[in-house]
Amino acid sequence: MLKHQLSDTQLILDLPVLFYFERAKVILWLLEFQEDKNQFSIYKLLHYITLMMEAYPKTLVIPTVLFTDRKRWRKDVDRKLINRFKDKLYLHFEYQFVKLFDYNASDFYDSQNPLISILLPKMNYPKEDRLTIITKAYTGLFKLASAALFTKYVDFIDVYSQIEESEKETILEHFYKQKESTMLAQYIKKKGVEQGMQQGMQQGMQQGMQQGLQQGILVALSEIVGTVPQAIAQKIHSIEKSEILQNLLKQACRSRTIDQFEKALVGRIPKKSVL
């Protein structure tokens, strides 16, 4: 039921978590992350909450919004909705407001919550402590989460900190020098290698498709003229966008003369084609 109700892409909750306690008390904690406060809508949040309350009528629902942008605000967001007429109150809605930049990262170095470790880079800290904060985030998550969960969530630290490769290399070098963090360095290094291999395979497949289409066009044209003029061949090899190459391949198969194909080729060569 809940999955169906929230199937709309505009109704996606970041983290709904159910807590079960003794005496059958159940709490549903709704944790929403907001990077851009201008995109936040308290009305949409209220909509989410009412859907959850309908799906779990016997559950206490606690809405929480974490604002993760690292800057001071000039204007606040809406914190509550109140709808009343005279002495009659028809609606009162509030949520748990958390702005991470209002918290000092150094106060949470020893937190036993892995989520806090992930969010450290979004908290407030001096610029010169940046690498220390990212290091603490890595080590905290590594100590508090299983290997599988660490592999799954370590990317969030990279995204939230917008870490540069040079910074990551510096941190890994530090980890390798410390015996207790050597395994952590190996996990991060392995994760990076696997991601690099995956990206490389994807790029290789795209490049192979591009070259195959280019070669297909030249073969089709060779059936018309025998030897394809060098100028036309160079133009075909300059095109990288697969959609354009697919259309040109169709045109090459339909064309009866090289002039007919060349007319179709004109205007289809962008200044800079990108896959």
Give a brief outline of the structure.
This protein has 275 residues and is α/β, with parallel strands linked by helices. 51% of the residues lie in helices and 15% in strands.
Description:
- With 275 residues, this protein is α/β, with parallel strands linked by helices.
- It has 3 domains: 1-102, no CATH class; 104-177, no CATH class; 192-265, no CATH class.
- 51% of the residues lie in helices and 15% in strands.
- It is built from 10 helices and 6 strands.
- A 4-stranded mixed sheet has the order 1-2-3-6, with helices on one face. A two-stranded antiparallel sheet has the order 4-5.
- Helix 4 runs antiparallel to helix 5, helix 6 (165-177) packs antiparallel against helix 7 and helix 7 (182-225) packs parallel to helix 9 (242-254).
- The radius of gyration is 28 Å and the shape is extended.
- The protein starts with a helix and ends in a 10-residue tail after the last helix.
- The relative contact order is 0.06.
Question: What is the straight-line distance between the termini?
Answer: 40 Å
Q: How many domain units?
A: 3
Helix-strand pattern: HEEHEEEEHHHHHHHH
**Helical fraction:** 40-55%
Biggest sheet strand line-up: 1-2-3-6
Give the biggest beta sheet. 4 strands, mixed
pLDDT average, as an integer?
A: 78
| Number of separate strands | 6
Instruction: Give start-end ranges of low-pLDDT stretches.
Output: 1-13, 193-198
Q: Give the helix tally.
A: 10
- Using only CA atoms, what is the Rg? 28 Å
Strand content: 5-15%
Class by alpha and beta content: alpha/beta
Overall form: extended
